[in-house]
Amino acid sequence: MRHMDDKNDTVCALATPGISSAISVIRVSGSKAISIVDSIFTPLSGPSLMAGKSRTMRLGTIKKGDSVIDEVLVALFNSPASYTGEDSAEIFCHGSTYIQKEILMLLFASGARQAAPGEFSMRAFLNGKMDLAQAEAVADLISSETSAAHRIAMQQMKGGFSRKLSEMRSELLNLVSLMELELDFSEEDVEFADRTRLRIMLDGVRTHIETLIDSFKLGNVIKNGVPVAIVGATNTGKSTLLNSILGEERAIVSDIHGTTRDFIEDVVNIDGTAFRFIDTAGIRKTEESIELIGIERTYEKIRKASVVMLMLDSEKEDSFRESIMKIADSPAFSDQILFILVNKTDSIEGGKAEMDRLCSVARSLSLESGLNPYVVMGISAKSDKGLKELKKALVSGQNLTFSGSDDLLVSNVRHHQALLLALEALNRVEDGMDNSIPTDLLTQDIRDALFHLGEIVGEINTEEILGNIFSKFCIGK
Q1: How many Cβ atoms are within 10 Å of 32's Cβ, its own excluded?
Q2: Mean of the pLDDT values across residues 263-279?
Q3: The predicted structure's pLDDT at residue 283
Q4: Which domain covers residue 42, as residue numbers?
Q5: Shortest CA distance to 324 belongs to which of 350, 333, 315?
Q6: Burial label, 408 (beta-carbon count in 10 A; 0-12, 13-18, 19+)
Q7: What is the DSSP letter of 146?
Q8: Cβ distance 41 to 74 under 8 Å?
Q9: Do 59 and 175 fall into the same domain?
């Protein structure tokens, strides 16, 4: 990322993938954007681009010498009514990689430079077109692969999260202003900030911050996929189930116990929600050192999972209790959603009646062990029997749909960390008030909270932070 002092120059880049396609878009932004595009563009009719109106499109040609490179459309955006807040132009050309390259080379020769990753969004931020949280939501929107992730990104890009932060910062600024006014009149022993009102306001802000912090678990799950740990004894069909869900031979399937030594994971989109399935090593008694490491990692994956799928072998009913107890006794299992799957039901005699009996046994054993499974169902991972019903249960169990347009979810790790630091600062304020700490120390903690909330939206920033954030964007955005 170039230094911020270079932001007055003009940049250009492909805003569409650099591959052959029907149409490509080349974005140009900066003080000379329109004049540079005008120098290589010949309109089919009417005045030059320099005399054109903002937010209009012109048809014409781009030439290299006497040779026509392409017939294109050019859209004009005069400052400040553009994405970046600067004069901008977008060239819509045919999607040949040769045409893309030739137009970019003409723009470079005319005085533009190649934009760095995220530079257009950085310019939009620096020019006040969006705050930092909204700019990061642009990147999340581009990378969203499910409807749930898309909804979070759209909500944040519209400024819902930023407005809530602004409200909290405004309340804290009012508090700290009154308290600092007291310091100016300290010799007169005047109290401008009523301590009862101060506590009420602090409690309100802290509650909002805690709600946002608590939402991170759900927001992060929606963004990165619901972690689903497939666990159970060896040779119960865990790897077969993973392969069936993914629709490919992702995991090695074998009758040999202990084949899966480490976890294997992949993401599947089910009805607009991403699920990250994790095939873990089978849990059993073993002295084999590598397998023991795999089993330990299984417990770690259980700890981090939102859903735990316990696989039972329908052919080994006598092993049900032991498998269920290993989950019930595991400190890694707490409030995860539990699915108990009785596998290999296509090979048992007695059909549906026997399958129902085995599921009833599994449910009774789990309830005796203190577990309350969300689902107990029979499946056949090998023949895909019950797979459709399993996917439906997964979606309903997660309940990841928004209840309304006012839902605010934190999905960004940087935002989550800043909120935690802000909450720590406000907790220090409350502790300080309980222990009659001097006002000047209380105001410093409130200002710490303001600092961390301001970091999220970019009201407080450093070039290093900005460079790190925008360098992760795609080129052209």
Answers
A1: 19
A2: 80
A3: 52
A4: 4-130
A5: 333
A6: middle
A7: S
A8: yes
A9: no
* Cα–Cα distance list, 74 to 61, 65, 81, 477 (Å): 10, 19, 16, 18
**Is 360's pLDDT higher than 80?**
yes
Whether 175 and 256 share a structural domain:
no
Residue 175, in any domain of the structure: yes
Task: Provide the domain count of the chain.
Answer: 3
Q: Is residue 394 part of a domain?
A: no
The string of pLDDT tens digits covering residues 445-468 is 888 988 888 888 877 655 656 666
Same domain, 63 and 114: yes
The answer to whether the beta carbons of residues 381 and 314 sit under 8 Å apart is no
Own/partner pairs, 386-392, CB within 8 angstroms, 24+ separation: 386/345, 387/244, 387/245, 390/339, 390/341, 391/245, 391/270, 391/271
Tell whether 372 and 292 lie within a shared domain.
Answer: yes
**248 and 325 assigned to the same domain:** yes
Q: Which helix (H) or strand (E) holds 422?
A: helix 413-434
Mean pLDDT of the chain: 81
Does position 407 have pLDDT exceeding 80, yes or no?
no
Cα→Cα distances 137→132, 134, 153, 209, 218, Å: 9, 5, 5, 19, 17
**Residue where the block lists tokens 């030439």:** 63
Residues 299 and 340 in one domain: yes
DSSP state for residue 53 in the 8-state scheme: P
Asked if 426 and 198 touch (Cβ cutoff 8 Å), the reply is no
Q: Which two three-digit tokens encode residue 134?
A: 């909204």
Cα 401–405–411 angle (5° rounding)? 60
Task: Indicate whether 400 belongs to any domain.
Answer: no
In terms of domains, do 44 and 99 share one? yes
DSSP label of 319:
G
Given a cut of 60, whether residue 249 has pLDDT beyond it is no
